[in-house]
Amino acid sequence: MGHAVLIMFLAMSLIPAGDMAGKLLTGQHGVSPVFVAWSRFAMGLMAILPFVRPPALALLRDGRVWLRALLLAGGILSIQSALRTEPLANVFAAFFVGPILSYALSVLLLREPVTWTRTALMLVGFLGVLLVVRPGLGGSPGLLLALLAGCFYGAFLTASRWLSHLGTPLALSFSQLAIAGLVLTPLGLANLPALDAHTAGLTLASAMGSMLGNLLLLVAYARAPATRLAPLVYFQLIAAAGLGWAVFGDLPDLWTWAGLSLVLGAGLVSALLRR
């Protein structure tokens, strides 16, 4: 269990680190968010392709699998667009509307059981997201994009539960990378940046941080029950706040700290209740 926890902490640090590299690309080097999103899918696909078996190709004939992959593509593209102008911690806080939406969609569409306690905690988390985004009260278009990214991701999570029986995690990962990469290829190639050593390094760090983080997440879940590790997913918020301060000098304001605390607290309690 101890090794799984350490792996989980590393995974939850690598994911925001990958997004930090993406923010450096879009914010300081003028790279298009479309290219950053596309490069993630393309490099991730190349990394797992040697391990993919022929039965995984059959998934590409299923329209539901395409829908799931397009939801992920929309989420990654939206979050990279948000990171161009917004602090890392703010974007991650708004993005965490995803698990809240996934809970609601799973209840409505997949008929999963609902409890009043978890519903109340989801509403508290949503209030935290609103405190960060503050629509109409100082919120910015970038944060609305982060909110949109979270909505895409919440729908993607629900679709993943819906379609989990279609194939192995590796096969489903292959399908989402292949489809999203294919769809974004024309836009990605149209927005190719001048790839000097610095830009190429950040592009690689962005893609590999995301891919390795999600890979280590699967490794951690193979070593310990998901219900025990679920609360650690919210460590991403802490890592994002720390990286944003260390690299960009961004410190959340009072309202954002309040929102972060509500999202983190509600998420941790909700995850602990599933144990």
TrEMBL record:
Any Pfam family matching the protein: EamA
Transmembrane segments: 31-53, 65-83, 89-110, 119-137, 143-163, 170-190, 202-222, 229-248, 254-273
Subcellular location: Membrane
Domain of life: Bacteria
One Gene Ontology CC term in the entry: membrane
Domain EamA: 5-133, 141-266
Protein name per UniProt: Threonine/homoserine efflux transporter RhtA
